Amino acid sequence: MSPAPVMVRFRDTVKTFPGTHGEIRAVDGVSLDVHEGEVFGVIGYSGAGKSTLVRLINALEPVTSGQVVVDGVEVAGRPESELRRVRAGIGMIFQQFNLLSSRTVAGNVGYPLAVARWSRARRRARVAELLEFVGLSDKARQFPSQLSGGQKQRVGIARALATNPRLLLADEATSALDPETTQDVLDLLRRVNGELGVTVVVITHEMDVVKHLCDRVAVMEDGKVVELGEVYDVFSRPRHRATRRFVGSALRDRPSPGALERLRHRHPGRVVTVAVQEDGASSTDLTRALREHAVDGTIIYGGITEIAERPFGSLTLELEGDHGDVQAFIADLSRTTSVLDLGTAAAPIADPDATDLR
Ligand SMILES: Nc1ncnc2c1ncn2[C@@H]1O[C@H](COP(=O)(O)OP(=O)(O)OP(=O)(O)O)[C@@H](O)[C@H]1O
């Protein structure tokens, strides 16, 4: 199957800002393609460059060097008049919703249509259709202050979709919402993608958002893309430290240094953390290896979740048995899955990725 056409292409894209201690490379040589029809996530900690990357897509910031191509149009160096046409094909939603407080829900949704000089009759019909789609038909005459956060974001989504954009940019769109409302908004964004065929780029610092919504994900750190791929692949086998921290903070599957120290007090044996993947150490593999090597394993920590019905996570075990048997068990299991040796209470080995997560 040939990949879908490209909706957004970055090639060696750099964006710098002047800083007090020299230039800041907010986007530092990014190359990636967002395909038509996919939901693409960009995840990173604060300052990683995510918002800058988005502002390059809708040409709110000029690129310093490299390419940014949106729906076939090279954005870099375009005159403002032509950029307006590119922006017209892009919808955007924000963490703080950015609704006009003096306008009703219908007025907010219809605003971009008024700007685009749609007739009153067409506007009314389109607004009604959009409110129906986001489930707010009964709120048309209310004002934003009368709505919950989740309802405000639904209005934001309806407004962003008003002029039928082919691309929707969602910058931390659920960061101000509680978990349940977040889920509703993520479901709605899935429908925007699935039913309307809109390509969605999601910027977030929350792995759960990526997990529930995205097809592929890019992990950013210090302006660079450090990992890129299918969501399951990236999160079930995180290679970069930043990715491992996102998995750790969402899943809380690995003991923090403090928790590990407490565990060692109670469990003086050899401690290992074993990755759980659909094709790696399923619990059957683990039990088989324990049996074959005459090693006793007690689960002392762990967490497993799933993405698209595919399980992943890790289990931390205390192993007891003859030293040679334990060594052989670790070597055997390491052939099919990732095993992190954390040593024993007497000879501890630190987890290089463990952080006391905020
Ligand atoms: N207009 C600007 N002028 C100077 N520096 C900027 C500007 N915009 C962003 N930066 C810097 O570029 C880097 C990346 O910022 P950016 O906002 O893109 O990151 P982010 O991942 O979106 O983080 P956050 O989630 O905190 O917004 C940061 O060091 C930031 O201080």
Automatic annotation (TrEMBL):
Keywords: Amino-acid transport, ATP-binding, Cell membrane, Membrane, Nucleotide-binding, Translocase, Transport. CDD domains: ABC_MetN_methionine_transporter. It comes from the Bacteria. Signal peptide: none annotated. Residues 8-247 form the ABC transporter domain. PANTHER family: AMINO ACID IMPORT ATP-BINDING PROTEIN, METHIONINE IMPORT ATP-BINDING PROTEIN METN. Belongs to the ABC transporter superfamily. This is Methionine ABC transporter ATP-binding protein. It comes from Cellulomonas bogoriensis 69B4 = DSM 16987.
